[in-house]
Write a structure and sequence with these properties.
Blueprint: H1 8-17, E1 21-27, E2 33-38, H2 40-44, H3 47-65, E3 72-76, H4 81-91, E4 94-100, E5 106-108, E6 119-127, H5 131-142, E7 146-155, E8 167-172, H6 184-187
Parallel strand pairs: 3-4, 3-6, 6-7, 7-8
Antiparallel strand pairs: 1-2, 4-5
Helix pairs in contact: 3-4
The chain binds zinc ion (ZN).
C-alpha cells in the first residue's frame, strides 16, 4: 500500500493556516450546535492545497480498492467541484458533476454522460450523513456505471456514513455537537451562525 504523505494532523494544520478551521458557535445541517467548523472551500480556494488533497485522496482510494482502474470522477455541485477535479487529475481521467433540478433531484446536465460499465468514483468535499454522495452513487448505477468507491476530504460522520460503496476520507472527525436545548454556547448567549453552503 502506498504511504499517504499527508497525515490527518498535517491536513488539519493546512485548515488552521488557511483560516478554514473556524471556532465559534455553529448550527450544523443536522440542526445540532457545535463550537467548531471546517470550511473546506477556504482550503480548496488555494490550487496547491486542492491539488495535494486530490492526490492524497486518489492514493487513499487506490489503497482502499486495490486498483487504479477508474474511468471518471463524479461530484455533486457545488461543494465537490474543486476536489473532484483534482482527484480526476490524479487519476488522469475526466471529471463531471451533478446538479439538482427544480424538483431537487440529482441529475447530469450540460451534456455530461456515462457509458454503461464505466468505472466511477464519487467525490465530495465533506461527508456528513453521506446523503448527497449516495444520491450520486444511485444516479450512476441507474446509468449503468460501476461505482468503485467514494471519497471526501473530511468525514464528519465519525466513519458512520454508509454510501453503499467503499469509502475513503483524508480526515475522520467526531464533531462535538450539542442539542440546542442543552448547548452551553446558547447558554452563554452567543449568537449561532449557519456556516455551511446551504441556505438556512
Ligand atoms: Zn448553541
Amino acid at each position: 500500500m502506498r504511504e499517504v504523505a499527508l497525515s490527518p494532523e498535517s491536513l488539519l494544520d493546512i485548515f488552521r493556516q488557511t483560516g478554514a478551521y473556524l471556532k465559534g458557535h455553529f448550527r450544523l445541517t443536522s440542526g445540532l450546535h457545535s463550537p467548531e467548523y471546517l470550511q473546506c472551500a477556504l482550503v480548496l480556494q488555494h490550487p496547491n492545497h486542492a491539488e495535494t488533497c486530490g492526490r492524497e485522496l486518489a492514493a487513499a482510494i487506490k489503497a482502499l480498492t486495490g486498483t487504479s482502474s477508474v474511468d471518471v470522477v463524479v461530484s455533486p455541485a457545488m461543494g465537490g467541484l474543486m476536489i473532484g477535479h483534482e482527484v480526476a487529475r490524479a487519476f488522469g481521467v475526466r471529471h463531471i458533476f451533478t446538479e439538482r433540478d427544480t424538483d431537487r433531484k440529482m441529475t447530469l446536465r450540460r451534456g455530461f454522460s456515462l457509458q454503461p460499465g464505466e468505472r466511477a468514483v464519487v467525490i465530495e468535499d465533506v461527508i456528513t450523513t453521506g446523503g448527497s454522495t449516495l444520491e450520486v452513487v444511485e444516479l450512476l448505477k441507474a446509468a449503468g456505471a460501476e461505482v468503485v468507491a467514494a471519497g471526501s476530504v473530511i468525514d464528519r460522520s465519525g466513519g458512520k456514513a454508509d454510501v453503499s460503496v467503499p469509502r475513503a476520507a483524508l480526515v475522520t472527525l467526531n464533531v462535538t455537537a450539542y442539542n440546542p436545548a442543552e448547548c452551553p454556547l446558547c447558554e452563554q448567549g452567543l449568537p449561532v451562525v449557519k456556516p455551511g453552503s446551504r441556505p438556512s
